[in-house]
Design goal:
By secondary structure, the protein is of the alpha+beta class. It is built from five helices and four strands. A hairpin with a 6-residue loop joins strand 1 and strand 2.
């Protein structure tokens, strides 16, 4: 079969897997479209940390980041510890999902990976999140932010 490329979008703060995009190839323009979809429900991040892959060093992503005031943080080649959480996430994802399935086709891979992502976000508590799931922690954080915004409007 053909190789799969998976773009993992993970929030460093909430530990949520915002998306796991599965394709045979992913270019910079696709990364921009994926980020545009994610910001519709999450807003723009202050920064995006990536490796030095061609999809992340593209003109399209650079222009997107500049236009939206997002800092691009490219880790140094051969320095995965500069992006330690995603490396840990990728290891879990590889061990628990990718190594456990023989994908028949792209649709099958997308289905199994989406199921794993849902379990990761909604079922598994994380010690670093005070034993909440990433989805619970993110929801609690959004509630706190909304309450603070309302309080600031009253003051």
């Amino acid at each position: 079969g053909r190789r799969l490329k998976i773009l993992a979008l993970v929030d460093d703060f909430t530990k949520e897997a915002l998306d796991l995009v599965v394709a045979h190839s992913i270019c910079g323009e696709q990364v921009v479209r994926i980020l545009d979809a994610v910001v519709q429900f999450r807003g723009y991040p202050a920064a995006v940390r990536t490796d030095q892959g061609p999809e992340f060093t593209s003109k399209a992503l650079d222009q997107w980041a500049y236009k939206h005031g997002v800092q691009l943080k490219l880790i140094q080649p051969g320095k995965p510890t500069q992006n330690a959480y995603i490396e840990s996430f990728n290891g879990k994802f590889r061990d628990e999902c990718l190594n456990e399935h023989w994908f028949e086709d792209l649709a099958h891979a997308r289905k199994e990976i989406a199921n794993w992502r849902q379990d990761y976000n909604e079922v598994r508590p994380h010690q670093s999140l005070n034993y909440q799931t990433p989805a619970e922690y993110a929801a609690d954080h959004r509630v706190t932010e909304n309450e603070e915004d309302k309080q600031n409007k009253v003051d």
